[in-house]
Write a structure and sequence with these properties.
about 190 residues; mainly alpha; two-stranded antiparallel sheet; 7 helices; globular
């Protein structure tokens, strides 16, 4: 039985299944990349382009900051709108954008300004897995009334529910996974 299944959860089974799939994608990526030396993973594919480790760091910190936002937001018992068709539309817009070849500069909190040049695989992999586990635990134990509310605010897409958060994480991960492998190929 997985850690996801051991906990009693407020989250609908479909959300838990999506989360487990996302976590599996991360595990597969980390298993594949851990065999490479850090010097190889730190190699930039070109001027102004992130190395594989820098891209991983960006993904990890984006997820961590998203989790921190939700925790802070729910810490003062806010009144939140119910997630509905408009919320779904925002998530769909984010998914479409991230699936497209259009490139936009990352927000400062998760962009070039905060991404170190020299990293090690394990200084990203370990906290990333820990962040994922902490977010899952938080989502599973948060008050049930927030499950279908707009609890997250994406910097571009706006207010989203947990489903939208998972959509963002999935498409963001998939987009940057391709970037990681392109960096390794160069």
């Amino acid at each position: 039985m997985s850690e996801t299944q051991k906990m009693t959860s407020q989250l609908p089974p479909a959300f838990l299944k999506r989360y487990a799939k996302l976590d599996q994608k991360l595990s597969l990526l980390l298993d594949d990349l851990k065999k490479h030396p850090d010097v190889f993973l730190n190699k930039s594919p070109g001027e102004g382009k992130w190395s594989a480790l820098q891209t991983m760091y960006h993904l990890m910190i984006a997820e961590k900051k998203s989790h921190e936002y939700i925790e802070k937001k729910l810490s003062f018992s806010p009144t939140l709108k119910k997630a509905g068709v408009t919320t779904w539309g925002r998530a769909t817009m984010i998914k479409s954008y991230l699936a497209s070849p259009v490139k936009v500069k990352a927000p400062a909190a998760v962009g070039d300004q905060v991404i170190p040049n020299d990293l090690t695989f394990w200084e990203i992999a370990k906290p990333w897995k820990e962040n994922r586990a902490a977010l899952l635990e938080f989502l599973q134990t948060m008050p049930k009334e927030y499950v279908n509310k707009e609890i997250y605010k994406h910097p571009v897409g706006g207010r989203l529910g947990i489903n939208g958060l998972l959509t963002f994480f999935e498409t963001h991960f998939d987009r940057h996974k391709k970037q990681i492998y392109r960096a390794l190929e160069s």
